[in-house]
């Protein structure tokens, strides 16, 4: 099948992606500011050209067929490459402007990313930074289709994602935390088993941190807390810990910046987070995204130096 004959147009790719994202021809037409008959006609054109049906209509709206899913993967990739080409040319012509879209995770972006963004904005005030917080599974398709430039946070396994690569930045311990006046603090040596009597707030099941915590529970013959809230917003987690008797597992930086969120003297063996960047394997970063990555690396070096200094107080004086 030759798709380079000139019959397949860029508007066909835009239209097919819009129908998939909006779930109906009508909503796609409204989004593209076109009449519905024109969208329907263009869809028939591309389906005739390809010789397959790309969408079916069902109870959930207009959904892609197996052929549609395959074509959409490539259509999104082509559109992403064209977007990035435009951004790269803009960046080369004027390094002071551009856009970088960053995905963040619950764990790992609370210190490095804000510092890196602040440094980037000092250097390039005209660069727009778009930050989207979600789970890693949510970010992966957007990394692959170009909707997101890079993801900052705890590094997740990518063995089943050959289109991605990762850059490690630093490591940070994870602590069990509770409010200062929590009832668990009355025990001389609280145990993980005893803490299960209290309510907990944990990350979602599909996160790496949740899987590691579950492994710690199982290693001690314990089940998952029964009184449980699942949350990926670090602001909400900290608020629940401050205002209730909930226990949470948070990166150490959260305990250093919030006096209402204090570590408990209960260890989490083997639970730490390697912070890094996940990005596409084959697509080059735009100038703005590359600049943000440079700032992330610099801030990671500074953070590692600060953490080492605070973890070993007085080391220089005693040398």
UniProtKB/TrEMBL annotation:
InterPro entries: HTH-type_LysR_regulators (IPR050950), LysR_HTH_N (IPR000847), LysR_subst-bd (IPR005119), WH-like_DNA-bd_sf (IPR036388), WH_DNA-bd_sf (IPR036390)
Keywords recorded for this protein, A-Z: DNA-binding, Transcription, Transcription regulation
Record flagged with keyword Transcription regulation: yes
Domain HTH lysR-type: 8-65
GO CC annotation terms, alphabetical: cytosol
One GO MF term attached to the UniProt entry: DNA binding
Domain of life (superkingdom): Bacteria
Pfam families referenced in this protein's UniProt entry, alphabetically: HTH_1, LysR_substrate
Keyword Protein biosynthesis tagged: no
PROSITE patterns with a match to the protein in the record: HTH_LYSR (PS50931)
Membership in a protein family: Belongs to the LysR transcriptional regulatory family.
Name listed for the protein in its UniProt record: Transcriptional regulator
Provenance organism: Streptomyces cacaoi
Gene: pcaQ
């Amino acid at each position: 099948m030759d798709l380079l004959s000139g019959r397949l147009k860029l508007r066909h790719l835009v239209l097919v992606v819009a129908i998939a994202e909006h779930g109906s021809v009508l909503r796609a037409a409204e989004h593209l500011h076109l009449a519905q008959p024109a969208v329907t006609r263009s869809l028939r054109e591309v389906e005739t050209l390809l010789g397959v049906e790309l969408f079916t209509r069902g109870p959930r709206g207009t959904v892609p067929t197996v052929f549609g899913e395959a074509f959409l993967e490539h259509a999104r990739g082509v559109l992403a490459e064209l977007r990035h080409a435009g951004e790269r040319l803009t960046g080369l012509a004027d390094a002071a402007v551009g856009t970088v879209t960053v995905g963040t995770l619950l764990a790992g972006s609370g210190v490095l990313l804000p510092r890196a963004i602040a440094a980037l904005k000092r250097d390039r005030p005209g660069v727009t930074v778009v930050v989207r917080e979600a789970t890693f599974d949510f970010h992966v398709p957007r990394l692959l289709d170009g909707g997101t430039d890079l993801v900052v946070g705890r590094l997740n396994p990518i063995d089943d994602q050959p289109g991605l690569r990762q850059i490690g930045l630093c490591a940070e311990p994870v602590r069990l935390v509770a409010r200062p006046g929590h009832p668990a603090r009355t025990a001389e040596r609280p145990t993980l088993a005893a803490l299960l009597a209290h309510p907990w707030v944990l990350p979602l099941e599909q996160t790496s941190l949740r899987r590691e915590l579950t492994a710690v529970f199982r290693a001690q013959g314990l089940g998952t807390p029964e009184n449980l809230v699942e949350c990926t917003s670090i602001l909400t987690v900290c608020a629940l810990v401050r205002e209730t008797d909930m226990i949470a597992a948070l990166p150490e930086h959260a305990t250093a910046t919030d006096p209402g969120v204090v570590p408990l003297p209960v260890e989490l063996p083997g639970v730490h987070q390697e912070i890094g960047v996940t990005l596409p394997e084959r697509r080059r970063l735009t100038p703005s995204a590359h600049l943000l990555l440079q700032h992330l690396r610099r801030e990671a070096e500074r953070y590692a130096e600060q953490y080492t200094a605070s973890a070993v107080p007085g080391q220089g004086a005693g040398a």
